[in-house]
């Protein structure tokens, strides 16, 4: 009987650890966010020698956009050093007023997202990358130009 209890305890502990590693380990999740800030840069060319860059940060309030971002900006992170280029200048901050996470999509268009300034990254699908690109482009077009 004692061996059965020990075996059952080991089985339950192993199963619990497996569930944890399968569903929760190294996960980043933006479901807590009630708002998002999108950062991007626009430029205006005045002539061959002068280009003016402007940094923008806009708040995303549309619930449909927020829901799409919550679905995209979650995943299992892994450490890495990727040469895709990541910048605060092109980023999304998911927040609820008390907690926030910055996500930096790769600047070369690949499907990798960096979590803040950490050494943690996660993959998104090609379709999710297209949605992010469209979101950034929609907000770029909404900014008034001189």
Descriptive overview:
Mean pLDDT is 82; it is low at 16-25. The protein has 146 residues and is an alpha+beta fold. The chain starts with a helix and ends with a helix. The protein has one domain (26-142): Immunoglobulin-like (Sandwich). The protein has helices at residues 2-23, 63-72, 126-142; strands spanning 27-28, 35-47, 50-60, 75-76, 78-79, 91-95, 100-105, 112-115, 120-123. A 7-stranded antiparallel beta sheet has the order 3-2-6-7-8-9-5, with helices on one face. The chain has a two-stranded antiparallel sheet with strand order 1-4. The chain is elongated. Helix 2 packs antiparallel against helix 3 (126-142). A hairpin with a 2-residue loop joins strand 2 (35-47) and strand 3 (50-60). 34% of the residues lie in helices and 34% in strands.
Q: Biggest sheet, open or closed, and with what strands and sense? A: 7 strands, antiparallel
How are strands sequenced across the largest beta sheet? Answer: 3-2-6-7-8-9-5
- Runs with pLDDT <50, length 5+? 16-25
- Structure class: alpha+beta
Percentage of residues in helical conformation: 25-40%
Net shape:
elongated
Radius of gyration: 21 Å
Bin the strand percentage: 25-35%
* Average pLDDT for all residues: 82
Number of structurally distinct domains = 1
Key terms for this structure?
single chain, 146 residues, alpha+beta, Immunoglobulin-like, 7-stranded antiparallel sheet
In brief:
With 146 residues, this protein is α+β, with helices and mostly antiparallel strands.
Task: Write the topology of this structure.
Elements: H1 2-23, E1 27-28, E2 35-47, E3 50-60, H2 63-72, E4 75-76, E5 78-79, E6 91-95, E7 100-105, E8 112-115, E9 120-123, H3 126-142
Antiparallel strand pairs: 1-4, 2-3, 2-6, 5-9, 6-7, 7-8, 8-9
